[in-house]
Amino acid sequence: VSLLNCSYFCYLFAFAVVITVIMSWCTIESDPGVFTELIQQMQVKGVQVEELYSLDLETLESLRPVYGLIFLFKWRPGEKDGGHVIKEPNPNLFFASQVINNACATQAILSILLNSPEIDVGPELSNLKEFTKNFPPELKGLAINNSEAIRTAHNSFARPEPFVPEEQKAATKDDDVYHFISYLPFEGVLYELDGLKEGPISLGPCSGGQGDTDWLRMVQPVIQDRIERYSKNEIRFNLLAVIKNRKEMYTMELKEYQRRRERILQQVNAAQAASDNSKVEEFNRSLAEVNIGIETATEKIVMEEEKFKKWRTENIRRKHNYIPFLFNFLKLLAEKKQLKPLIEKAQQKKLPNSS
């Protein structure tokens, strides 16, 4: 049976490699609005991404529950990191090797989504996880590549290019190559998931889950140490948190305040009917506090709506192809014999002063 399984996996791997050659993935921008829309396009519900500008615990705790953190850094070949690579990981942990160029951002997101039981990942990702549960990491990586839904969502953020090269240029030692990795707690262990490694990296036992502060306290010095290690030669880092949808949380908070307000109003009416002035004053003070809570929650909801509106606008601009407009604009200038004078004027501005 083991020989048959081996032959089956070898055949499947070889077939998937052939298919992979003709499938390309674009590079996407490390941006919370991009990642949030990407997650939505994969039919995942109730999740958003926020960019972190500080690693202090107060900031991290204010975002709870934090399902995972995504860290972007400049990748340097041959560099060894700390941590114990687990060759035989927890079978419930989803870990996929990165076998696709430019897909590390989406793979880092998937590493968090598919290891977060509280998240409704939708039918596409649920089927992917179930289908690949007994696959080795390499085949899981190829399964991600072969998912048309995931690849389409990822490539929807491709920047329009005037010329499409027939072959992708391979990165050289002089090129800047950036890589995404994930940090998250899973079944009592804090993990670093890096698709370029042989397996998941255990950062030690961790009590509590994604909604607790224990893992945030534990991961903070790990990321800080990594930043300090690179900071002498590199300042371009990016840290993003995959969190619960804020608008949904604030809406639940608002509804709770509104229910409390109704209860207090009933208590006020009862106290007034009983001519209990001391109780009326007490309930009115509570009512004022609840009204402040309602106002605050409403303001937060409006801020989230404005933020998502801004993200949508930015993403539309990212995806829009301005090249036809620019081409026709230049053509129109040329037809009106205005293009050449503008070019000459621009060239003169570049020339050094004759004096």
Could you characterize what this model shows?
The chain has 355 residues and is α+β, with helices and mostly antiparallel strands. Helices cover 52% and strands 12% of the residues. Strands 1-7-2-4-5-6-3 form a seven-stranded antiparallel beta sheet, with helices on both faces. A hairpin with a 2-residue loop joins strand 4 (178-186) and strand 5. Mean pLDDT is 87; it is low at 1-22.
Q: What's this, in brief?
A:
With 355 residues, this protein is α+β, with helices and mostly antiparallel strands. It has helices at residues 2-21, 32-41, 57-62, 104-113, 122-131, 137-145, 148-155, 214-230, 246-273, 277-319, 323-335, 339-350; strands spanning 47-52, 66-74, 84-85, 178-186, 189-193, 201-205, 238-244. Mean pLDDT is 87; it is low at 1-22.
State the main characteristics.
globular; seven-stranded antiparallel sheet; alpha+beta; 7 strands; 355 residues; single chain; 12% strand; 52% helix
